[in-house]
Design goal:
It contains four helices and six strands. The protein is of the alpha+beta class. It folds into two domains: about 40 residues; about 70 residues, no CATH class. A hairpin with a 4-residue loop joins strand 3 and strand 4. The longest helix is centred in the first third of the chain and has 28 residues. The N and C termini lie far apart (about 75 Å).
Length: about 140
């Protein structure tokens, strides 16, 4: 077969035949790309989601007022295990925050009061902070 004969055959192709050839090529390349993509997806580690809000917190201790400290709403505030620290408030304030909110980051460590749930914080007399999105 001569190169000029091949060129003539390509010129004689009708529009419908050219579209079919382009469609077959497109589908082939798309299938190849998706196959490569699926191989990449297989190498990623699996993600597991654990219980973010423990259903029952056992062994909750309560803090007691220090000498010279007035008993108030913070005198019987529960000291929760690390996994139950979902909301934080200040012993000197009346607002509660998510731990990553700007207001929570300004609270000194010794003044932080931790809550497992919103209801627990509100029951202790705290209200949601206005500058903490999502509360």
């Amino acid at each position: 077969m001569i190169l000029s004969d091949t060129g003539e055959k390509i010129k004689r192709l009708g529009r419908g035949e050219a579209y079919v050839i382009m469609l077959v090529l497109f589908v082939g390349f798309a299938a190849f790309g998706l196959g490569r993509l699926s191989k990449i997806q297989e190498t990623r580690p699996e993600i597991s989601i654990s219980d973010a809000f423990p259903s029952a917190v056992a062994g909750i201790e309560t803090s007691t007022p220090q000498v010279g400290e007035e008993p108030g709403i913070d005198s019987a505030v529960p000291v929760l295990p690390a996994e139950a620290k979902n909301f934080v408030g200040s012993r000197n304030g009346s607002k509660y925050h998510y731990p990553w909110c700007p207001g929570a980051q300004q609270i000194k460590e010794e003044n932080k009061v931790w809550f497992a749930t919103r209801a627990e914080a509100e029951q202790a007399g705290y209200t949601p902070a206005a500058n903490c999105k999502g509360l």
